[in-house]
Fold:
Amino acid sequence: MYEGAGTCYAQDGVTFLDLFDADEYAEHRKENLFYPFASREEWEVANFLLCSPLSMAAINQFLGLPMVCIHQLKLSFHNAKELQSCAEMLPKGPSWKCQTIPLLNPTKSPIQLFWRDPMECLESLFSNPLFHDQLNFVPRRIYTTSAQLLCVYSEWLTSDSAWEIQVCMDCVSIFMLSHLYHPGTA
Structure:
């Protein structure tokens, strides 16, 4: 491992759970973790329907089946619109953005680019407790024996390039710190 790389200097950032516990529905989730759904089972049905390729009409058709609406599944949502309303109450991740691409020549319909802000995505990943201790950005060298004669390259962080970039980052850090504490030096 590259000594000192990827060191965390502060633990004061806002995590996903902080945001989760601060939203307007946090009080409801203290008693029901799956709020706005009535139970884990209802959440599983909702998750299945929302992640499926079914249209809203097909979801309505499913929810209208006698087995679903009357007998077995006592769901708190009765149609696709109510299901969508429940889903919109869930905590949000990075938002999608849309940008129309200007073209030199006209087209039948405008070209639209849908994208997410990479910094928002990284922030979301880093603040998610599911990934705690799972994300590793420290360059490392792996050898086949303790004599360190043959290096194993299995992913980018085991490459010479990753190691060299970290060396450069250390040089930049030292340069910046020296100018911070000794301004005016060249």
Notes: The first strand starts at residue 96 and ends at 101. Strands lie at 96-101, 111-116, 142-143, 151-152. Residues 12 and 127 are 11 Å apart (CA to CA).
